[in-house]
Predict the structure.
Amino acid sequence: NAGVTQTPKFRVLKTGQSMTLLCAQDMNHEYMYWYRQDPGMGLRLIHYSVGEGTTAKGEVPDGYNVSRLKKQNFLLGLESAAPSQTSVYFCASSYIGVGTGELFFGEGSRLTVL
Amino acid sequence: GNSVTQMEGPVTLSEEAFLTINCTYTATGYPSLFWYVQYPGEGLQLLLKATKADDKGSNKGFEATYRKETTSFHLEKGSVQVSDSAVYFCALTVTQGGSEKLVFGKGTKLTVNP
């Protein structure tokens, strides 16, 4: 029972490089989210999706793009990485809205931008 | 806007001590309230929740009561164990753009010593 799987788990980039984080869930969830976690800041929502083919901006969307071409996958892209994007990124999914449902999180992807 | 404020950590306790982690919130309307827990090296997982005033959420010996009059949702456990060492996040729901999202507090790190 995989749940939410993130790849890669660790990555080091140089400033200006691009990369994509992949999130896959096998629970047939409609909603998917990308958060970043920084020391002393808690989790902040980057982008989210309420269904296949939809995306929306969260609290800190600048510098990131996302796509949800398939229901089970939610991709987070960095077109030109900056040191400020050094963080731990978490993907999450939920079957219904978070008010009554539960978010299921992946184990995180640690990104370092030099 | 809706937000949560958690007591700053870190919190260090001895095994079998009583635990309280304070959480207060600011909200319009009637948000749902949650506690999520993050064990070392893992993603967050739901610990307990309450969806309306005076509800008590409970799980694994932890409890929290939704207090509308004091806008609080304090986490308590009567006797902590070493295995409870983790970071605890208070969260509430926010409705924006027609969809519900979670807003997290900054987290409180708990260390329980044998």
Notes: Chain A has a mean pLDDT of 93. Chain A touches chain B through 25 residues (CB under 8 Å).
